[in-house]
């Protein structure tokens, strides 16, 4: 019976060895897959490290740009406030000047006197060169100038009356 027990033990050990070998082969295949996955994972981690470094540089650049924009905006707002203050002062000064001009005009304007327009006379006769002799052109020019001056004077009187 020891032979059977020893034979059964050897068979059991052989079966266990076959199971161990099969298990080792499967475990070796899994380890190979894990090593392949590890290489892919290392590549992915490397890419992530590069991407995060790039993102950090981009963030630093954006912060610098934001600081510059903030500084520029603050300068422009300050300039705009100064211009606004200057413009308000100029508007106030302009209104003051207009008020003074209005007061001066109000004081300088004489009381309204009704002016009756002068009766218009017939159109001036033109002097011919035949009746005036050689001075006909001079007399005509003087007559035209006198008429223009009288029209201007009449316009001034009407303007003062208004």
Could you tell me the number of beta strands? 0
Structural class: mainly alpha
Secondary-structure element series: HHH
The proportion of residues forming helix, as a percent range, comes to over 70%
Structure at a glance:
By secondary structure, this protein is mainly α. It is built from three helices and no strands. Helix content is 85%, strand content 0%.
Q: What labels describe this entry?
A:
162 residues; rod-shaped; single chain; 3 helices
Structural account:
The protein has 162 residues and is mainly alpha-helical. 85% of the residues lie in helices and 0% in strands. About 7% of the residues have low confidence.
Write the layout of secondary structure elements.
Blueprint: H1 2-108, H2 129-132, H3 136-161
